[in-house]
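Regression report. Comparing outputs from two consecutive submissions.

Submission 1:
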Amino acid sequence: MPETPSRDLPSAERLARFLANPALLARLAREAEGDDPIDWGGLTLDHGAAYELMASQIAEMFRAYEAQGLDHDEQLLLALGTIVKLATESFVLNQRLLARR
């Protein structure tokens, strides 16, 4: 299990720790992959590097939201919307791959 920030900290401080350490965010995401692994399809990508690149971009995006003054409830709504968009994109790409077979 990754070294997650203490649950005793206020949520804003926990979020700040994840945003300051994208590698921690990447490890959390890799753990979430456990029951639903990504089909890398023989790609020669370094899986860890791919996770860290995406985690860095997401952390940067949320640091910008914070700098714009969005409160944590607004950031949560944006995160949920982003998750739905990415899940839908993944679903569509998988359907396209299946249609080609």
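Submission 2:
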Amino acid sequence: MFRKARTALIGLAVAAGMVTVGSAPVQAATSAAMDAPCGWFVSSGLAKYNHCDYNNVIIYVDRLIHSDYEKCVGPGVTTLGIHPAVKGAWYNGRLC
């Protein structure tokens, strides 16, 4: 049931143009953030989330062994941990 709801939310976010691919205060976008895809991605073995808007949002972080959690992120790239220990992350529809 949870997987179906999560898939539906991801599909809705993609359809709305919020995500193109799978916590810091508001700051100017860096060139690294501009080069990274929006949303969750893996780079050099690290799981990261790039928030491509100008507000702060809460993301849901899906982890392999430990409990999943929510995190407030600002614009730009946030490192979430080592992949595959962090399996994914997505915007949950709330601001922070």
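Expected: both submissions complete independently.
Actual: both completed, but the second showed a warning that disappeared on reload.
Relevant detail on submission 2: The longest helix spans residues 2-15.
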